[in-house]
Design goal:
This protein has 141 residues and is of the alpha+beta class.
Length: 141
């Protein structure tokens, strides 16, 4: 009878060890999941802040387009920037004609762009900025 009680005493700590191992496994898995979630959340918040800043800059952008067409000569467009933001113009469209050059319109300044292309009868001009805004002007006759 003594022999049976010894083997029982020797096995008493086994369930505690298995329970502690299971607890540690669950704890490590929970912490790793929380770490991965927090890393993704931080990158999401940073991307959302960058997008919000871009949208604010985009809404603050304003450009006045005054086209002045010369018959048979170079065409010119005056771009007026009444805001405190620097504006980069990437494209100027005249119906199906495009001018793919970058022009800088300074803050509270203007820029005259001259180019030679045939004007369509409607004389419409569209200006595209680097932030994706589209501004238009038309020669009124």
């Amino acid at each position: 009878m003594k022999r049976g009680s010894r083997s029982r005493r020797a096995r008493r700590g086994v369930s505690t060890t298995i329970g502690m191992a299971m607890f540690m496994l669950i704890f490590v898995m929970t912490m790793s999941t929380m770490f991965l979630f927090s890393q993704r959340f931080v990158s999401y918040v940073e991307a959302a802040k960058e997008e919000s800043d871009f949208q604010v800059q985009r809404t603050q952008e304003y450009l006045i387009v005054i086209p002045t067409g010369n018959v048979g000569g170079p065409n010119s467009i005056q771009l007026i920037n009444p805001t405190a933001e620097l504006i980069l113009v990437t494209q100027i469209w005249s119906n199906n004609h495009v001018l793919n050059e970058t022009f800088v319109v300074p803050a509270f300044g203007n820029k005259i762009v001259e180019f030679s292309s045939s004007l369509s009868p409607s004389k419409n001009f569209t200006v595209v900025t680097s932030r994706g805004n589209i501004f238009a002007g038309m020669i009124l006759t």
